[in-house]
What we know:
Layout: E1 2-11, E2 14-23, E3 28-33, E4 39-45, E5 48-49, E6 70-71, E7 82-85, E8 88-91, E9 104-109, E10 114-121, H1 124-127, E11 134-143, E12 146-155, E13 161-163, E14 166-167, E15 170-172, E16 179-182, E17 187-190, E18 195-198, E19 212-217, E20 223-227, E21 232-238, E22 244-249, E23 255-261, H2 267-270, E24 274-276, E25 281-292
Antiparallel strand pairs: 1-2, 2-3, 3-4, 4-5, 6-14, 7-8, 9-10, 10-11, 11-12, 12-25, 13-24, 15-23, 16-20, 17-18, 17-19, 19-22, 20-21, 21-25, 22-23
Amino acid sequence: MYTISKQHLSHQGAEYDQYVLADTEADTTVTITPCKGGMITGMTLKGQEFSWLRDPNFYLPERPRCAVPVLFPCCGRCADGKNTFEGKEYPMDIHGMAHSLPWEVVAENCEDGAALTVQFTNNETTMQFYPYAFSVKITYRLKGNTVFLEQEYHNADTKTMPFAFGFHPYFACTDVRNLQWDLKAATQEDPDTGKSIPAPAQVDFPYDPDQTTRYYKGVQSPMAFTDTQSGHKVTIDFDQHFGNVVLWSQCELGFVCMEPWNGWPNSLNTGDCEKLEPGKSLSAVCSFSMDLV
Length: 293
């Protein structure tokens, strides 16, 4: 049985509406918080939480560094914190702006899974950073142990729109040294130096007291990791629009990010990004599956 329930969260003067998608037969839930960047803020299987929240970051208006931020219209950092469109510079935070602004709920149903559709559109604020009229819709659809992220990117402008997209999921883990990886890629990259080497057959993700990062291109779907201590296994499937992946962790904090990207750092400036003609749309899908092994 699929259900959608709405709950209200109050924390230190901040108020949030959340939507909880549930598959009662599979004993899974996915929580969406539209006003917090339209993102997933909880994923459970048999009562065990797979997502990771950073307190107090989640409750602050700053860029979320927890849960599942949506990356749009870029992935990673742009050079000098700016993008240039039609000869004019515009400031841009890392991973874009969609993660820091409210989204609206536009549809919900339980006909084929528990499904909630949220939408993000241009406004006066977005035009300060990204001078295009657009809409982004994501339908979060929970079926069994899998949540599907069905996306539609639409150019509502009169000029061609450059953009990239992706997701930055933070998954709870006992320790990155307990993780076994199943990830196959063509190359391992260093965006800072431009160095590219063939990707190793075994993912190299060492513990570091500060943080560890790995960038990959040509990644095959699906990719997964298993926490040998907790028994949590996370699998991410994605379509042809993805293929760039970042692994990242602030190792001492108990999370790991396995991030499916369409874009690449600074890609809106280099032009190595998606380009939509006026009135056109692009559809993409990826999914997160939870298992206990």
